[in-house]
Design goal:
The chain is mainly alpha-helical. The chain has four helices and two strands; from the N terminus they run ααααββ.
Amino acid sequence: MDYSNESAGPSNCPSGAAGTKQLAVLLTSPTPAIDTEATLFPSSPSLMGRRLPRISPSGFTLIELMIVLTIISILVTIALPIANAAILRAKEAVLKSNLFTLRSLIDQYTADKLKAPQSLDDLVTAGYLRAVPKDPITGSAGTWETVTEEATILPEQTETGIYDLHSGSSAISSEGTPYNSW
C-alpha cells in the first residue's frame, strides 16, 4: 500500500483483511481519549498506526476557583486591619505636624505684629499661610478649636487673641487620649 499522498481522507483508508483487523483494534480500544478520525485518517504516513491523544479544553474547576477565592479572602482579612492602622497613624502624624506648624505661626504672628491673631484666617491674609490646613481627623479646615488668651503674653503686645489650637475631633487617638487635647 502506498500512503505517500499527504491529504487525509477516505481514499487513504487501508483495505482488505489487514485493514479491517486494524480498524477493529482501533474501534475497540479501551482508551476513550483517542481521536478515532485522526487515527484512521492520518495527515502524514509517519503517523500511521499511532494513537493521537485528544486535546481536552483547559480551564479551572469550581473547587480550584473556590480555593483561590478562600485564600484571597483570608489575605484581605489579615491585611485590612493593618492598612487601617497605617492610615490612622498617618493621619495622626499629619495632625501633629499641622498643630506644630500652626502654633509656631501663631507665635511668629504675635511677635511680628505685637498682637495675637483673631482667627486662623488672619494668618492667611498676613501671608504666614497659603490656606488654613484641613484637620486630618475631621477632614475640614473649619473645625479647628482655637484657644484665646486672657492676658497678653508679650509685654509690648497690644491685643489678645488666639494663642493655641486643637483638633475639632473628640475621638480617641491610638495613644488613648482625645484628639482635641493634643
